[in-house]
Amino acid sequence: MMQKAIDYACSKGADCAQTTQGGPCYGNGNKVAVCSYICNSYYQSRASMGATCDFQGVATLTNTDPSSGTCKFASGAR
After folding, report:
1. Domain map of the chain by residue range?
2. Where is each X8 domain found (predicted)?
3. Which of 7, 6, 3, 78 is nearest to 46 (CA)?
4. What's the chain's Rg over C-alpha atoms?
5. Cα 19 from Cα 40, distance rounded (Å)
6. Residue 78 to residue 75: CA distance in whole angstroms
7. Max intra-chain CA distance, the chain
8. pLDDT band at 49 (very low <50, low <70, confident <90, very high)
9. 71 three-state secondary structure
């Protein structure tokens, strides 16, 4: 299910380049971390158009900033 969410968000313009090898949000193979970044990128870029952050139960909204090290999550579209 996570891979479907990643594929969908990337196909709709999420900033997936940040999660490729060498990118700040690569995650060293941690698919949960990669999915979190990509789902957030999708949501932040499309929330004003009515997008949700559910991805069939894979994602959820949080008030806790998941940014870590050089991997910075965008925030603010609500």
Report:
1. 2-49
2. 1-73
3. 78
4. 11
5. 12
6. 9
7. 32
8. confident
9. strand
Query: Contact 57/23 with Cβ under 8 angstroms?
Result: no
Token pair 């999550």 is at which residue?
A: 73
In angstroms, the CA 5 to CA 54 distance is 9
Q: What is the mean pLDDT of residues 22-41?
A: 91
Structure tokens at 56: 């069939």
Confidence of residue 78 (pLDDT cuts 50, 70, 90): very low
- The pair of structure tokens assigned to 37 is 């970044």
User: In this structure, what token pair is assigned to residue 40?
Assistant: 């957030």
Rounded to whole angstroms, the Cα distance separating 36 from 33 reads 5
Reading the block at residue 77, the tokens are 């579209």
